[in-house]
Amino acid sequence: MALNIIKRTYERMKAMELEFKVLSNSLVIKPKGEIDSESAAFLRRKIDLEFECTAAKNMTFDLTEVDFMDSSGVGLVIGRYKKVAALGGEVRIKGANRTVARIIELSGLGRIVKMI
Amino acid sequence: MTNHIKVEFEAKESNVSFARLVAAGFIAPLDPTVDEAEDVKVAVSEAVTNAIVHGYDKREGVVYMEAFSYDNTVMISVRDTGYGIEDIAKAKEPLFTTKPDEERSGLGFTVMESFMDSLHIESKIDAGTTVTMTKRIGSR
Ligand SMILES: Nc1ncnc2c1ncn2[C@@H]1O[C@H](COP(=O)(O)OP(=O)(O)OP(=O)(O)O)[C@@H](O)[C@H]1O
Ligand SMILES: [Mg+2]
Q1: Which domains does chain B have, with CATH numbers?
Q2: What is the distance between the alpha carbons of residues B113 and B92, in angstroms, rounded to a whole number?
């Protein structure tokens, strides 16, 4: 019983809140919460599936509602960048808060994706 | 004033957020700035993720985390008894990773080093790795 409750809560936590929309040829990805190794794996699957289903050429990460991100988030964006760039598209990042922006800056990610 | 805590947990990625919470809770009495608290959280996130992802690499195991504080300095250590690191100097190089296929970017140690005041790594093949970091809180 207790284990079931824990399992259900856990499943809900694992399924990070995530919004998609397509805006002028770009798939806008808006995750909510914390991006770490666990949630990055979840996001990777969801984003790749969505990108295949839409006709968008570019990707925009809207990080307005991301309050924590470690190097797993950088790996996630670089991984998507490789896929998108191979098809001639671009990746952009918007709305990164101070903390997230510091990680992005340290990683040099700002040199391959456009910060808007 | 000193303080000390010791926690251990299963090597599961779902426990990384727990480790971050523990670290944030431990340093809270030291009255950190938002940036200082975030620095410690992200450094702990990197160290614990490494223990799980590289130290145990899908095997079962236990991650041991300890935190000490002495006045306004905090010391945090994260230990695994997993595979160990062959070449520590190489592992610390920015962008060096042994798991590029899993979309690792090789930035964990760089993040720990830049966001904390000191980083010390001890490792032995097939015995495990201990990462110890310190940071002065409230240097504002
Ligand atoms: N606890 C550990 N046990 C064994 N090997 C480790 C451990 N921590 C780090 N390493 C080794 O050091 C390398 C560099 O670690 P670092 O955290 O800098 O990058 P990463 O984990 O590969 O990528 P990222 O942290 O950006 O996701 C790893 O690829 C791994 O080979
Ligand atoms: Mg790492």
Answers
A1: 3-136 (3.30.565.10)
A2: 9
